[in-house]
Amino acid sequence: MQSWRGKSLWLALSASWLLVLLRVFPLLRLAVPARPWASAPQGWPHWLDTELLPSFSQPGELPEDAPQPPQAPRGGGCDWGACFDASKCRTGGLKVFVHPVAGPISAAHRKILASIESSRYHTASPEEACLLLFLSLEVPAGECSPVPQQWNGGRNHLVLDLHPAPCPQTFQLGRAMVAKASPTADTFRPGFDVALPLLPEAHPLRGGAPGQLRQHSPHPGVPLLALAEERGRWRTAGTDPSACPWDGRCEQDRGPEQTHPGGTLPNATFCLIPSHRPDALHFLQALQAGCIPVLLSPRWELPFSEVIDWTKAAIVADERLPFQVLAALQEMPLTRVLALRQQTQFLWDAYFSSVEKVMHTTLEIIQDRIFGASAHASLLWNSPPGALLALPTFSTSPSDFPFYHLQRGSRPVGRFSALIWVGAPGQPPLKLIQAVAGSQNCAQVSDRFFPHRAISTDAILSLDGHSSVTTSEVDFAFLVWQSFPERMVGFLTWNHFWDEAQGGWGYTAERANEFSMVLTSAAFYHRYYHTLFTHSLPKALRTLADEAPTCVDILMNFLVAAVTKLPPIKVPYGKQHLEATPPLVPGGPEPQPTARDCINQMAAGFGYMPLVSSRLRLDPVLFKDPVSVLRKKYRSLEKP
Amino acid sequence: MGQVCLEREEEAACVIMCASVKYNIRGPALIPRMKSKHRIYYITLFSIVLLGLIATGMFQFWPHSIESSSDWSVEKRSVRDVPVVRLPADSPIPERGDLSCRMHTCFDVYRCGFNPKNKIKVYIYSLKKYVDDFGVPVSNTISREYNELLTAISDSDYYTDDISRACLFVPSIDVLNQNTLRIKETAQALAQLSRWDRGTNHLLFNMLPGGPPDYNTALDVPRDRALLAGGGFSTWTYRQGYDVSIPVYSPLSAEVDLPEKGPGPRRYFLLSSQMAVHPEYREDLEALQARHGEAVLVLDKCTNLSEGVLSVRRRCHKHQVFDYPQVLQEATFCVVLRGARLGQAVLSDVLRAGCVPVVIADSYVLPFSEVLDWKRASVVVPEEKMSEVYSILQSVPQRQIEEMQRQARWFWEAYFQSIKAIALATLQIINDRIYPYAALSYEEWNDPPTVKRGSVSNPLFLPLIPPQSQGFTAIVLTYDRVESLFRVITEVSKVPSLSKLLVVWNNQNKNPPEDSLWPKIRVPLKVVRTAENKLSNRFFPYDEIETEAVLAIDDDIIMLTSDELQFGYEVWREFPDRLVGYPGRLHLWDHEMNKWKYESEWTNEVSMVLTGAAFYHKYFNYLYTYKMPGDIKNWVDAHMNCEDIAMNFLVANVTGKAVIKVTPRKKFKCPECTAIDGLSLDQTHMVERSECINKFASVFGTMPLKVVEHRADPVLYKDDFPEKLKSFPNIGSL
């Protein structure tokens, strides 16, 4: 009985304990403070009622707001849509008129004017123009340039301010755009103003010095850093990050460094450029030298930042984090350093090396704004040869141009068109047509000088009535062209040389170990060069070419070399007896002097000598090898 | 009792037990009276109960000790239970906001200081509910989207829960939609955040700024120096390089399942799908429709929909009803017109449908325009030019339209699709500003994955012909064939452009000959000893290499003439980004075996050159040593073969270009090799080499080698021309 009672008592007791404990535990749990657990990070909580939370905008409200009258919300400022009337440009294309400048002008300004006049956008009539350019002059302090006639409130005006003018606000700008050298970031209106580079006084009009980079990778002995100092000086610093190289904080420990005399270019991998505006001059120096600019919190807008992707050529870093920037520079992978260095050279050469390039780039940017959807793609601006040489009127697709195939690892597809130039009417060159049409790659043959639009293929085989080529020569040359679509591939070559005796350039058509030009009487090249020839060359050079037939060949070679910076390609040619003598001009036994004049005038027109010599010829793999002729694909090439 | 307490494992449970024992004072007296049989029974029962309790207790108290479930690491709570904060009416209000703020003036970069990973650290304030003096809430506590956004940040690599280490602070105060909040009180709430400090390094997300009647284009809440990630900035309110322009999220993104539709011509050329368009614009649009008929479709709100149908998912044209957003996939171009606000959610829907947006909103700063190239995915037309829209669009070539459609869809997938995508892109942009040297490139932001995979980016893209004066460095890999090595050195030293000779002594058991025994040559000669006998030592980027051009040459290549080597160097100068070598080889697809085959016969084509003697850029040594994909490098060292094929693959893969074979040379014949039975050796050799090609092609995931049919010879090679006048007469042997 007792045990039964004990049992029941125990059971009741345990049950009550259980109940008590079950009640007490949750309470205890709440009593423990909700402490953050050190081990696991406590993220944003997962709310129990996530699904019930309201959306930030109710469906009825979101897509539509209360309709408002169409009013541009602006604070008295200007932007492209509001202040530029592009309708005039869209019908007639960009036409630029420069307001005549009254009074004496400096050499720098004269260069600017000359370079705008050489542009294909220039017009002499203000009525025709859709962009009016006003050159803001340096005037004595206190005085300001007068507002030009036809100012029209500044509408469709571009005020050019290449050198910082002492007159702070020349006049009421109104709706005019400002193209200014290194504008301060605070006043710059992106998409409307144009940021120009700060050019030295002696900047050349055209041509311009080439980039200083002679090799892709940094030389092992070159110091890591150069620091811009006053008066165009550079100071190189060692790689030791403990010797902090800027802020003047480490004056006492100058380390392994030397001061360069003013004007020389820095020889280092990175160039540190302080933040203030006068230092912008250093920027171009570094760019030319292939020294990667490291801009420390620049207070000025980088030149042409609207189109140039500066992250590919420069580093914009925060001046407040010196050690971190230094560490990052030291640890930068070689691949990135290589890419940055090469990009500095490309940009220098494409947009900055001469006043003409700077001005043409400015106009090209405005042209791009007008074009809208059919403007240059970013790739065209930011990879060789640059937007000035890749005309968007030709195509908006990079694969239509000759330049981007090799960069992207592709090759042009399709076939070629043979273009046969027949001077005088007479017997059509049947044999030649037969030989060319025999190639399976030939898409069309025409014996007439026909409009470029009729050419449907990327490749053009240019021939004249006197040339004689075989099918197998054409086939092989076309194959080679497909591997080098940006170059000219030809059979007959000339070489240029510097003639000490005459003090000018000369050329020779004789067989030599080197060549720098191929004759268009038998050559493959890309269709795009026709467009470039017609639209980008200065008028003076084209008239020169029209007058003397030999000049066409030279001009074409100049153009392609200036674009590619590479020599043309020579392929084997059987008919050696038809040597590369220039075509005889009827009635003139002296073609040589004309050609010589030609080459010198071209060099003057370009501002430099773009031709590059080559010492190689591309032959078929088994060319003239002592193996069975049956193994060879291009047998007829070897026939004597 | 004592025994029981000895068994205790869990303190708290024991204390409770003892307490209850004390309470039932008669309890202990019972135990001795019980029979031992019962006692065991009770004790067992008791211990089971006790153990159960202990287990429960442990489970409840130490949830964090259980690793398996991540759910335990974050509390499950309700938004309704968050602490309430009362804002006194006179609490401080931040300044209005400084339009001149830039990263280097208003952002405290020191907080982001030293960071090896180049990643900013983001802290999120915990959620509070703010009420005014009268207990009226300041805003909705949090919206679904803002909660998603904070969750996304919290789950990302940027997140830190340590406020002192954070570089960027994200308040949990939801300001996504200005209409749902009280401006002054929200500003007060911001100002009392623990690290507010004039808003420095604080990031606010806002998608619907402004309110009637004038609809400002930026959030009206005074926020001092705080960064604003806003949807609907105009160029007047956007602080370039400081604020971030973000999209207005379209909730339809999550609600509707819209399968991707590829680019190509579509039924309508131009479509307008927005409902509340200003009458003036609607007139313009309808005029367009009248002029161009079927090609233009202007949709409007549906007036006669039956109850229960979601009006946001329907659009009407006259009496025709269309499903939205599906109808967007029927159009090539879709109008995105400014409403009262500049930022419109329809942009997101349009991109998703692969329709090219035609943005008609003057001064609108497009989402993420700091990094995204909108020219590739949209057409921007000034409001003034609305009547000309059709002709402007007609001038876009079909190929470009397709490219834009593809790009639009990719932008949506990468940056618009979800709140998470928007949040991470915003943080990435800020991160790129703070660590510019580690920033993503234009291509990484803008190229769709297919383009990224399909194209190469040549590391030596600048057309640059290195000056001849620089010369080249010859690297001779040798083991112990000293006699042959010396002959190679003597031969190579005759080449005019040689600037340095580097001997890589790959034999660890034997010392190189003494200095006095080496041939005397006119250029510096350096001997490098290696730690291990590996083939890859030949491609190591030694510091001793000071020239860009490298000639790799085996210690038994004595047959190459000085003319051949000099010409090889000249050719390399014209093609500095390629491998320039002598005997060429070819890879072929074996249709029977269904794999690649190595070919060394007399072929008309070339896709590889042997590196027994080859010129190339020093950079490729760096690539071979540090960037060779997969296990190729180890594989080559283990098999002691195919290092040249690996180099050919590497260079072709990174540049996308073919090799250049120079001169007719077909074989490297060495006198010592003639004794060996060539045929059987050749057989196994060919099989091994084919193996290599197949192995490498699988590692690279593609066949990078390019086949060409040309080789480089001197200009006058085999021409009918006096030999003595030729630059490189001594060329032509096989």
Task: Provide a brief overview of the structure.
The complex is a heterodimer of chains A (about 650) and B (about 725). Chain A is of the alpha/beta class and about 650 residues long.
Walk me through the structure.
The complex is a heterodimer of chains A (640) and B (734). Chain A has 640 residues and is an alpha/beta fold. Chain A has 16 helices and 21 strands. Chain A has helices at residues 2-31, 80-83, 87-92, 107-117, 280-289, 322-330, 334-352, 355-371, 378-382, 404-408, 430-437, 471-483, 528-535, 539-547, 549-564, 591-606; strands spanning 46-47, 96-98, 131-135, 157-161, 177-181, 194-196, 225-228, 234-237, 270-273, 292-296, 315-317, 416-421, 442-446, 459-464, 489-490, 493-499, 504-508, 517-518, 522-526, 569-570, 616-620. In chain A, the strands form four sheets. In chain A, strands 13-12-14-19-15-20 form a six-stranded mixed β-sheet, sandwiched between helices. A five-stranded parallel β-sheet of chain A has the order 2-3-4-5-6, covered by helices on one side. In chain A, β16 (493-499) and β17 form a beta hairpin. Chain A is globular, with a radius of gyration of 35 Å. Mean pLDDT of chain A is 79; it is low at 30-40, 61-66, 241-245, 247-262, 447-451 and 577-592. Chain B is α/β, with parallel strands linked by helices and 734 residues long. Chain B is 31% helix and 15% strand. Chain B has a seven-stranded mixed β-sheet with strand order 18-17-16-19-24-20-25, with helices on both faces. In chain B, strands 10-9-13-14-15 form a five-stranded parallel β-sheet. Chain B has a three-stranded parallel β-sheet with strand order 6-7-8. In chain B, β9 (268-272), α9 (279-292) and β10 form a beta-alpha-beta unit. In chain B, α6 crosses α13 (419-434), α10 crosses α12 and α20 packs parallel to α21. The N and C termini of chain B lie far apart (103 Å). Chains A and B meet through α1, β1, α2, β11 and α6 of A and α2, α3, α4, β1 and α6 of B.
